[in-house]
Write a structure and sequence with these properties.
By secondary structure, the protein is an all-alpha fold. The protein has seven helices and no strands. The chain starts with a helix and ends with a helix.
């Protein structure tokens, strides 16, 4: 029996009405935010998660229209203003959010690099790795 036939015997076929398994972006960042105690560490993780989603949607894969990117960045600016983030992290995160409104790959890459640098001590290795992988995807 060939290898594909063996695999076919182990895995049942998907029914025609089955949905594809959803892919959750930035799982480690979201997990860190869920595990972190209330306060600074959780807010840093949530801010990084939100900024990473905006950055990915602005320059990687199917890019969102200008009006949508600008509206999302505007909402994120207001949300960041309500967060209690350390001063050293507030400015780089705000710059990244602002960069996503324009959709310029080089500006987003520079802002994302600044965020990965200042948050390295706050994030665990898996969450920081997700930001580094996003920075590599933006650089391509």
């Amino acid at each position: 029996m060939t290898r594909p036939q063996q695999i076919a015997r182990v895995l049942p076929p998907s029914p025609p009405y089955a949905l594809a398994t959803p892919v959750f972006r930035f799982r480690a960042l979201a997990s860190l935010a869920g595990r972190a105690p209330l306060g600074g560490e959780r807010e840093v993780a949530l801010a990084c998660y939100m900024a990473a989603r905006l950055a990915q949607d602005s320059v990687v894969g199917p890019v969102l229209p200008d009006s949508v990117r600008e509206a999302r960045a505007q909402g994120a600016r207001h949300w960041l203003a309500a967060m209690t983030l350390p001063a050293a992290m507030r400015v780089p995160l705000a710059r990244l959010v602002e960069a996503t409104a324009g959709g310029d790959r080089a500006t987003v890459r520079t802002a994302l690099q600044a965020v990965t640098d200042v948050t390295a001590s706050q994030l665990d290795s898996a969450a920081h790795s997700e930001l580094l992988q996003l920075a590599q995807a933006v650089a391509v």
